[in-house]
Amino acid sequence: MTYARIFITLTLILLAFAATELSLAKGKNVITKDQLIEMFDNLPKKPDWDSTKPLLWGYFFTDQSKEKLETVAPLLAKQGYRVVDIFLSEKDNPKEPDIWWLHVEKVEIHNPETLNQRNMIFYQFADDNGIDSYDGMDVGPAPTNH
Asked: What is the pTM of this model?
């Protein structure tokens, strides 16, 4: 993972944590359009980070059940998303419940409005499929072979 992608990922995680203060309701929009505008304003100013061109967008879902994520992964694959991994989150306290992550990705062009729409779709997808959460996204340069 490049330094810039790590920076964007950490920024998005911080935005998601800040947004959870707004609402923890299942299916509730927690990443605001204003936060997306800020994210786009902070994208690195490099040719391979041109947001008017395709970038590699990663999307993350979480659940306490790995099996639920394994069930929905093919639904996202049918929509053109590449399933990257389903992995167990590290925990500070072994008594905490397990949290599983589903990571999918797709090369796409987004702006704050289209990404906000995608987030709304994914919040609804998580809610419709009984997944604990759609947790947000990260972005990086698209692979040269896309």
From this structure: 0.80
